[in-house]
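Posting here for the record, re: farnesyl diphosphate.
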Amino acid sequence: MPNVANPLEGKVPVKLPGDEKELLALLDPRTLPRHVALIMDGNGRWAVQKGLPRTAGHRAGIESLRRTVTLGVELGIAILSAYAFSTENWRRPPEEVDFLMNLFVEYAFREIEKLRSQGVRVKVIGCRAELPPTVLAAAERLERETASGTKLLLNLAVNYGARREITEAVRAIARKVQAGELSPEAIDENTIARHLYTGDLPDPDLLIRPAGELRVSNFFLWQLAYTELYVTPVLWPDFDRVDFLQALVAYQHRERRFGGLKFD
Ligand code: FPP
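Prediction output follows.
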């Protein structure tokens, strides 16, 4: 019987070690998630706590992304999907939007060599039509120059919104129906999944949400159906190797049933 008083009982180890070596010893390399999704939240709060402008938090967030990708490569995680800019983030002050766009361009140029040497392939997912030309060009270059990476696929979600993604998929499917290429009866869940930015990729096994918010914020609404959620109060710029390992160890304590029954 699940413990109703504590719905999290058994879902996280009683106490997660705070030491990298101890966490690595607890990790079972055979059952690592194939696909980890990340909501890189808390940059602004991190900066404000330090008396810095919010933009300093975004810059520090880049370091966290680099650390996380590096550990993902070391551990053999196949796919990381990181939410860098949402379709709703355009509502932020124009200076912050400009900063984030420029930061992406800077990231793209500065990181290419490291990503290539790590065997990382980058794919930028999101609505490209509204991206400034410099950002679009940087995204295309990043994708082109990392195309041979085989160790880890890094999906960077830029101008990404799940509702937009699903809307675009529905439009593309409707066009095929209209053109007589597809019958409505032939549309199934796979048809929809294949028309999302994530295409044939497996759904995320684990979603990590730093900064403590208990919501999915228009990220991967379709893909997260059976994803394990891990929320930590740690702000994204502080999210380090130990935090990532703790999330992975906690994930390995989950019992995934995908809506079925537990047979044992
Ligand atoms: C949310 O924190 C974070 C963002 C809107 C941007 C995330 C971007 C980065 C980590 C760096 C950019 C990444 C690339 C690849 C260029 P927030 O500002 O909402 O934080 P808050 O909730 O504390 O205000």
